C-alpha cells in the first residue's frame, strides 16, 4: 500500500538513460543496505513506456495544467469581464465554487488512476524504489543509479547547499538569506533628499513600476520563464538533456541557492581526456529564452573544455523567478559548486555568456576577481536603451524607473570592477541588441560595452582622439572594412605591446592605467585601435546563430 501511495504522489518519469559501462559498479564491491540493484539497461527501452492507464491520465492532467496556466495569465481580464456582467455576486459565485470543487475531485481521481497505472509498471516501481532510497541515503551508488533516470526535477534530491563551504559558515561576509551583494543605483545628491511629502507623491509611480516589473516586464525580459513556452519546448529539452548525459557523460545536479531557489545544472568533465583545455572549466550563462539543454553550452563542449551549464531561476528544472537578485544568487551557488564540489580553482574557471547572460557573468567576474577570463557574446552594456526601444515613447519615464528599480542589468558597471582578461564578441547582423535596425551596426549596444570598458581601463588612451578612432573602427561591418581602417592608421603592434608591457612592469597590473598620458595624438590613436581590436572580435551573424567552436577563443592578455 505504501508503494502504491508513492506511485500516486511520485514525479513524472520521462526517460531511462542508457547505462554506460564505465558507470556500473565494480562486481567486487558490496552494495550498501539502501542500494537498489538495477536490471540491465538492454532489457528496457531507453524511453520510458507508460501503461495505457498512466498515459491517458497524464494527458488529462497535462491538459488541465495548460488550461490552469492560460486561466492564470488571463485572470485579470476574466475578472474584469465577469464583474462587468455581474457574475461576481455571491449568488453566482457559490454555484461556481461547487463546480470547481467537483472538478478538483475528478482531477484527484485521475491522479489516483495514474498512480495505479504506475504501480502496475515494473519500470516505474524500480524507479520510485531508487528515488526513495536516494532520499534516505545519498550514497554514491544510489545517486549513480538515480542519474540513469530523467524525471520531474522537483523530486531530485539537493546535491549542493549554498552554505556547504566551511569558509562561508565561519565568515560573516558571505551571502545571507536575503541574497548576495549587488551594485545599487547612486544615492541622491545632498539637497535633493526625499521628504515625506515627496515620498508620498512618488508612491503611485513606485507601485506601478512594481506591478509592471512583476507582471509584464519580467515575462518580456525572460520569456523562457513562461510555463506555456517551456511546455512547448519540453520534447526539445528532453532530447538535449539526453544528448548531454548519454553522449557527453554529463552529470546533473540540484543546487540550493541562498534565497531557497533550486538551480538545475549539468556538468561535463573533460579533465580525463588528452586535450589540455579539458583542465579548464567554462561556466555558461544562457540568454533570456535559453536553456543549457539546447543553449550556448555546445560551443565550449565542441572546443574540448569541461563545461558547467545552469538554468535561470524559473527555467525548466530551476525554481523561482529571474529577477536580478535571484539571478546573482543562482550564479553565486553555481560558482561555489564549481570550486568546492567539482574541485576547480578560480584560476581555471572561464565565464562564458550569451546575450542577457552577460549580467550574471559580469556579476561573477566582479564578485570572484580571481576567475581566469570572461567571454561575452552578443551582450550589452545596460538594459534601459534596449527596453526603451520596444516600448512607446510616452512610457519612457515609467520604463526607465521600472528597469532601474527592479530589472537593473548594469553589465558595463559590473564588468569595470573586474581586472582580468575580457573578450567581447559582436554580432554584425544582430537584430536584438541594436536600438534601431540590424543594419545600423553603430546602434549595437556591444559597442557601448566596449567603449565603457576601455574608457575605464585606459582613460588617457581613450581621450578624444582615441575615442574617435575606435568609433570609426566600430563602424566596420565586415573583416575587410575592419582591416582597412586598421591599416589606414598604421598600427605598430610591437610598439603597442612594448608600451603596455613596460607600463605594467613599472606600475603593476591593476586598472585603471594612466598609460598614454605623455603621448601625442597619433600614439594614443594607435594604442586605442590596438586595444579595441584585442578586446572585441566581430562575428558576421545574427543574434541567435550558434557560435562556432573555432570562434571560441581565450581573451587577450599581456
Automatic annotation (TrEMBL):
Superkingdom: Eukaryota
UniProt keyword Repeat, yes or no: no
EC class: hydrolase
Keyword S-adenosyl-L-methionine: no
Chain segments annotated as transmembrane: 60-84, 96-116
Family: Belongs to the AB hydrolase superfamily. ABHD16 family.
Gene: ABHD16A
Species lineage: Eukaryota, Metazoa, Chordata, Craniata, Vertebrata
Stated name of the protein: Phosphatidylserine lipase ABHD16A
Amino acid at each position: 500500500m505504501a508503494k502504491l501511495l508513492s506511485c500516486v504522489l511520485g514525479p513524472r518519469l520521462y526517460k531511462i538513460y542508457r547505462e554506460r559501462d564505465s558507470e556500473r559498479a565494480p562486481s567486487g564491491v558490496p552494495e550498501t543496505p539502501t542500494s537498489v540493484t538495477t536490471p540491465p539497461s538492454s532489457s528496457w527501452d531507453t524511453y520510458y513506456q507508460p501503461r495505457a492507464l498512466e498515459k491517458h491520465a497524464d494527458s488529462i492532467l497535462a491538459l488541465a495544467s495548460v488550461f490552469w496556466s492560460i486561466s492564470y495569465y488571463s485572470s485579470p481580464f476574466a475578472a474584469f469581464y465577469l464583474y462587468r456582467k455581474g457574475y461576481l455576486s455571491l449568488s453566482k459565485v457559490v454555484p461556481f465554487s461547487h463546480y470547481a470543487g467537483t472538478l478538483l475531485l475528478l482531477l484527484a481521481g485521475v491522479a489516483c488512476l495514474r498512480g495505479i497505472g504506475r504501480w502496475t509498471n515494473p519500470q516505474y516501481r524500480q524507479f520510485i524504489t531508487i528515488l526513495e532510497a536516494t532520499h534516505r541515503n545519498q550514497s554514491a551508488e544510489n545517486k549513480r543509479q538515480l542519474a540513469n533516470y530523467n524525471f520531474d526535477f522537483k523530486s531530485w534530491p539537493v546535491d549542493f547547499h549554498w552554505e556547504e563551504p566551511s569558509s562561508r559558515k565561519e565568515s560573516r561576509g558571505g551571502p545571507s538569506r536575503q541574497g548576495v551583494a549587488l551594485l545599487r543605483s547612486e544615492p541622491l545628491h545632498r539637497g535633493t533628499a526625499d521628504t515625506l511629502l515627496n515620498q508620498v507623491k512618488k508612491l503611485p509611480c513606485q507601485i506601478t513600476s512594481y506591478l509592471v516589473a512583476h507582471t509584464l516586464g519580467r515575462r518580456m525580459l525572460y520569456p523562457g520563464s513562461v510555463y506555456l513556452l517551456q511546455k512547448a519546448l519540453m520534447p526539445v529539452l528532453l532530447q538535449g538533456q539526453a544528448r548531454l548525459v548519454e553522449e557527453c557523460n554529463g552529470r546533473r545536479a540540484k543546487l540550493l541557492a541562498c534565497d531557497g531557489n533550486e538551480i538545475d545544472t549539468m556538468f561535463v568533465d573533460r579533465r580525463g581526456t588528452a586535450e589540455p583545455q579539458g583542465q579548464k572549466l567554462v561556466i555558461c550563462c544562457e540568454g533570456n529564452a535559453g536553456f543549457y539543454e539546447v543553449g550556448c553550452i555546445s560551443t565550449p563542449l565542441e572546443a574540448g573544455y569541461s563545461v558547467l551549464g545552469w538554468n535561470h531561476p524559473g527555467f525548466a528544472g530551476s525554481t523561482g523567478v529571474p529577477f536580478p537578485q535571484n539571478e546573482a544568487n543562482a550564479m553565486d551557488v553555481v560558482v561555489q559548486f564549481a570550486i568546492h564540489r567539482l574541485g576547480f580553482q578560480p584560476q581555471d574557471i572561464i565565464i562564458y555568456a550569451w546575450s542577457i547572460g552577460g549580467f550574471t557573468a559580469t556579476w561573477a567576474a566582479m564578485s570572484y576577481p580571481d576567475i581566469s577570463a570572461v567571454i561575452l557574446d552578443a551582450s550589452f552594456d545596460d538594459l534601459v536603451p534596449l527596453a526603451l526601444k520596444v516600448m512607446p515613447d510616452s512610457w519612457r519615464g515609467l520604463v526607465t524607473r521600472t528597469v532601474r528599480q527592479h530589472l537593473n542589468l548594469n553589465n558595463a558597471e559590473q564588468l569595470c570592477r573586474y581586472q582580468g582578461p575580457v573578450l567581447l564578441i559582436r554580432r554584425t547582423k544582430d537584430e536584438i541588441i541594436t536600438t534601431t535596425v540590424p543594419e545600423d551596426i553603430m546602434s549595437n549596444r556591444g559597442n557601448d560595452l566596449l567603449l565603457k570598458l576601455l574608457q575605464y581601463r585606459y582613460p588617457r588612451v581613450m581621450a578624444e582622439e582615441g575615442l574617435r578612432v575606435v568609433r570609426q573602427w566600430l563602424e566596420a561591418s565586415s573583416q575587410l572594412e575592419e582591416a582597412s581602417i586598421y591599416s589606414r592608421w598604421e598600427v605598430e603592434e610591437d610598439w603597442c605591446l612594448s608600451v603596455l608591457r613596460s607600463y605594467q612592469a613599472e606600475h603593476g597590473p591593476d586598472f585603471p592605467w594612466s598609460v598614454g598620458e605623455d603621448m601625442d595624438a597619433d600614439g594614443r590613436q594607435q594604442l586605442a585601435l590596438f586595444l579595441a581590436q584585442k578586446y572585441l572580435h566581430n562575428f558576421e551573424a545574427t543574434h541567435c546563430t550558434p557560435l562556432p567552436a573555432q570562434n571560441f577563443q581565450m581573451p587577450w592578455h599581456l
